[in-house]
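Q: Convert this sequence to structure tokens.
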Amino acid sequence: MIRPQKNSMIHWFFHHYILWIAGRSFYKINYNHVAIARDKAVLLLANHFSWWDGFLMYYLNHKLLGKKFHVMILEDTARQVSFFKYMGAFSVNKSSKDMMASLNYAATLLNDPQNMLLVFPQGKLYSNFTNEVIFQKGVMKIMSAAQHNFQLLFAATFIEHFKYKKPGVNVYLKTGGPDLVYHHIDELQAAYQEHYNSAKQQQTEIVL
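A:
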């Protein structure tokens, strides 16, 4: 398992780089506002369709959530892009015995109300307009180990050009109620699928 490392200079540089490249590459990044609990960590579950996903959620955290950013990524990715570990990334290897260590580490992050943990439950890249979102089981293990003592947030992101030279981003957010607890992966996946379907419908109804 590759854990996050602290280096204030590297973090400062890539923090500003991510915000700069996101602002430069898209004509606009839209998101709806949701109430964020200051006394709980945030578990952000997002669809996974592009190289941009982590950067966009980092941008969203900076603009809206205001938490310490953490993200679980594949070990191969963590080795290929070494600076990720300085931005709160830690690795998971689904074919290794270390997988449980990664899931348990993720759960401990949710004990600190200052943290935000980003997870891509699909585990792989899929089309931005796929109809069905299938979750891997690991996210349920994280939630159970954290005893559901966090704020759950769903993000469904879509990118399109429309009439602009640069693409635009729409992030559709939905937060679970404070007493809403999922005990099985099928329940969690169905709840996210409902939000994803609604977000996709809104996206396809945009007319400029």
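Strands lie at 28-31, 42-46, 68-74, 89-92, 115-119, 151-160, 168-175.
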